[in-house]
# Entry
Amino acid sequence: MAEVLGSIPSRTTISQEILMELNMIPYPVPGVGVLILHPTREFHIVMGVRKGGHGAGEWMIPGGKIEKWSDGPKTAVEEVKEETGLDVEVINMGGHSLVDNEAFEDAIGLSTGDYFREDGLHFVTLYYAAKIIGDQIEPKVMEPEKCEKWIWHDIREPLPEPFFLPLKKVIDSLLARVDWQWGWIPKTED
# Structure
């Protein structure tokens, strides 16, 4: 490892991708996960099976790394389009809902810190809810080297196995806020 770093001129910026390949990234990588809401079926979100890299073969939601000079909501919209072909808009920003969907009002507050020690990776992922704004509502596999398939999944049902662990944390947290008698209305304090 010292030889690798010693061969790099001191004024060179090492890209995040190179550091990840060398399992040397010294800080958490910021990322996004996107809960795409079905326009007519409550509790349904888009899920897919990962291919390649960490989490291969596991169910997950669309998402990715936040690139330099970008932000969470912009990355969320771009990643969904790149991965599923769906046009979406983020419906929560800074904890303030932009639509009348109270269960996701504070979804921006959902985040995970995940360590993949065998891959030398540490991600901090912010989760966003998004609604479809285009005519297309069926997700398509746009990156076949990264995803096997996409489906609509009712999160009231058990997650398909095997699932990407960060997704389980987020779904459990979200479902703990739902009032089951009234649907997507978060539980209130008694």
User: Anything to note?
Assistant: The longest strand covers residues 121-132. The radius of gyration is 18 Å. The domain at 27-182 is CATH 3.90.79.10 (Nucleoside Triphosphate Pyrophosphohydrolase). Helices lie at 2-6, 16-21, 72-84, 165-175.
